[in-house]
Design goal:
It contains 9 helices and 12 strands. The chain is an alpha+beta fold. It has a 6-stranded mixed β-sheet. Helix 1 packs antiparallel against helix 2.
Length: 280
Amino acid sequence: MPETQPDQPLLNALKTVVNSELIPSSLTTAQTTEICQQLHCSLIELAERMLPLAASFSFAPKSNFHVGAIALDKQQQLFMGANYELEYGPLTGSLHAEQSAIFNALSHQADELTDLVINAAPCGYCRQFINELANAASLKVHFNQQNFAFPELLPQSFGPNDLGIKAPLARLDLATAKQAPDFAKASYSPYTQTQSAMFAYHGDKLLAWSCYLENVAFNPSLSPLLTLLSQLTLNHLSLDKVERFELWEHIDNPFSFRQELENFAEHSRKPMVHHSYPLT
């Protein structure tokens, strides 16, 4: 993506409101309201101005194509996302910015998503993933100064309703999550019932976590490894900060992400621990 001049008024407002030099990966309702007042802009205009900041979280060593995405919920909270590629292996091992932003929102227990703002048109893969959202029919998508109702971008779609799923992807069940298996059980997997969660630790300190998100078309299902790496980046944490990775999975899962994590652990020279737990 071509370089642009820094939006200094925006950066100043963020620094004042967030009280940090670091770019925030999410903003609360109070923060977006105050920044919009300072900049005299709407929430959508704010998200559009923040897209270059979202794209700055991108890790794209293979494609060198840096994409940012921002999800907004009905409480006017803002959640950033960016694409992430593995340095080894094929490009199929990659996370798209839209997926990153959606998981960032869900991991923060975001309310119903209302808008998705992107700095490039969403690819078909992402459109299929977005279609898993419970409110996909009412979601608005913004890119290149154009606005679309999401169904316009995916006509004659194949979605959860086609397989009789009555509770598509919405807020993750994290309200009482305390132990690692609780986060694995929060996985959204109505098609295979798979429960998987990954964690990155420095000593006993949890740096980031992720869980599996499934899609009716299967291929856009969200690997917990790629989401975990994206969450580390969004939290301004490098792999140098990680001492070990942990994978927690239900003992009767129909498949495992163990090999995927082992491959990454070998590449990154980080230890990994695999745990299996019974259904309780």
